[in-house]
Amino acid sequence: MTLQRNIHxxxxxxxxxxxxxxQEKRLKADDYFFQYAYKQAITSYExxxxxxxxxxxxxxxxxxDSYYKVGRFEEASTVYxxxxxxxxxxxxxxxxxxxLQSLSVMFDFNKVDSLLSKKATSFSKELFENKEFNVSLxxxxxxxxxxxxxxxxxxxxxxxxxxxxxxxxxEILFSSDRNQNTKKKYAPTGAGYxxxxxxxxxxxxxxxxxxxxxxxxxxxxxxxxxxxxEDLKTVFYVASNTDDGELVFNENGKNALSIAKIxxxxxxxxLFRDLSTSFYYPFxxxxxxxxxxxxxxEDGYGGTDLYYVATNNGQIMSAPVNLGPRINSPGNEIxxxxxENSFYFASDVFYGLGGMDIYQSTIETGDGFSIxxxxxxxxxxxxxxxxxxxxxxxxxxxxxxxxxxKGGKGGDDIYGFRVEEKPGLKTITVKGRVVKAxxxxxxxxxxxxxxxxxxxxxxxxTISDLNGKYxxxxxxxxSITIRSTKNRFxxxxxxxxxxxxxxxxxxxxxxxxxxxxxxxxxxEGQKVVKFQKFFFGRGRTNLxxxxxxxxxxxxxxxxxxPSAQLRIETYTDSRGGxxxxxxxxxxxxxxxxxxxxxxxxxxxxxxxxxxxxxxxxLNNCTNGVYCLExxxxxxxxxxxxxxxxxxxxxx
Length: 651
Known about the structure:
Layout: H1 3-6, H2 13-21, H3 28-34, H4 38-50, H5 57-69, H6 73-86, H7 93-105, H8 109-118, H9 125-138, E1 150-153, E2 162-168, E3 171-176, E4 185-186, E5 191-192, E6 195-201, E7 207-212, E8 223-229, E9 234-240, E10 242-243, E11 246-247, E12 257-263, E13 269-272, E14 279-284, E15 290-295, E16 305-312, E17 315-316, E18 321-322, E19 333-339, E20 342-347, E21 357-362, E22 373-374, E23 385-393, E24 396-403, E25 413-419, E26 427-436, E27 439-443, E28 448-452, E29 458-463, E30 469-475, E31 479-485, E32 492-497, H10 499-505, E33 511-513, H11 516-519, E34 520-523, E35 526-529, H12 545-560, E36 566-571, H13 578-598, E37 606-613, H14 629-635, E38 637-642
Parallel strand pairs: 26-33, 36-37
Antiparallel strand pairs: 1-25, 2-3, 3-6, 4-5, 6-7, 8-9, 9-12, 10-11, 12-13, 14-15, 15-16, 16-17, 16-18, 19-20, 20-21, 21-22, 23-24, 24-25, 26-27, 26-30, 28-29, 28-31, 31-32, 34-35, 36-38
Helix pairs in contact: 3-4, 4-5, 5-6, 6-7, 7-8
């Protein structure tokens, strides 16, 4: 069992039981439950039911929790479901997760999906994305990318619980409740209080020659889950809250766990102490100076969540920052560890293999995280697997984790492993905003964004939110295509491979879509491409820079809307002969057509290229009528008409 499960938040059971039960009739089974004697609690609750005793809702929930704790998932799922159907508010988010995990173990995935869909508004979209990704991944045989783990049970293990290994130079530190003559017993479990030990790492990775880690002063209560900083020569760890050598409790009888640190050869220093909040599994990251940890703050996403604080050489400099719903779930998250930009942690979220599973997430720019990926059956089991650490060793990697899987020596055992590559699935995360192509400050919502595979198949798709934001994540591909569409907007298609993909991973990838209605306008009763009016030289057909800069807008229009069909229309004023004007405008239309084709517009997009001469005079400046030059120039014009405007889009 993990530390979060081993060390419960309440140590004075009588006070806590009173606060929970109020006027309820107290049963012997309740005492068993609060003493973590779950098997005895089940037997006692079932005996009461057999005698006709009607269990309260709280006691029925205790029974469900007890079934869950001992791995009787069929009974747990039945009791949880019955309570939930009666009153969904009876289950908190952690118990809702336990219900879903029980159903998942029983392969009742349809019911899991049904219950989730009814609670869609109660949980983050990240939870559903994480679930979809991992369920799909775990169903594939190659989800572990072919990594072969050489896993071995550490010689250091005892018949008790041994867990939370951390590197300490050529040694490891770890936690254990193994019996020691000088240690008191931890009343709820009857085991020894946890202490920190160290042991040698041998050449083959095996671990032995364990002894108590004496750099931390001895105490009669919990000291556990160490994390060592080589830079600071400091050990961070959790400890029972004590004053003058005695446990201290809050008003509800809770003895919480604090986080402390000790510089080698120095004195312990408390970093976090709150009589109502327990802290677990500190991990200090050298690169950022951040101290990560698990805690059961009331405003979390579930049970224990993962947080960090900024530090200055280990001294806390900020308030705790929750790692957010991409990492934290309705379940419990514990044991953070960072290696080469990968964030490893354990979670009992319902879509895992069972119990606590180890996940890997890539740390993204802006303190973001990729979807946490279950490491799969190469590392994880249907039991609790947690507390992984890893480092480069020789030509490969050496790591350790803890598990209470079958075949071990005690409760939790420490396992070592060797592997050639870093555990975890490499993924591609493409995220950013969909914006107006010619005004990136204006976001586009409800745009479809897809990632396509090498054969054009849709690998993942989403819709941009109200702020234009989108995010897609898929297992690594050597090449991908990003496609985005929205009705009456241009389509965006971009092929990426190799270094281009690596570049996309490092920053936001904004997608620009052009709105059709921004690029066309109504003129003379027809829809035309929008550009500034230009003029040919008197009697001339050549295209100067003032003309080509406007025609480039037509090229851009076709690039955005390649299905548009065009007609080029050119007109003159009434001056000059009719035939001459007709030939002149036809030559001008042909010159425009040639320029467009030469600059990438397919000839098939230009259905007509017509010169109308002086046929369509827009004012009274007809033959023989004196007009100012400005009035004659009104009739000199070129239009690019969109012929299929009325059928170009369908709602």
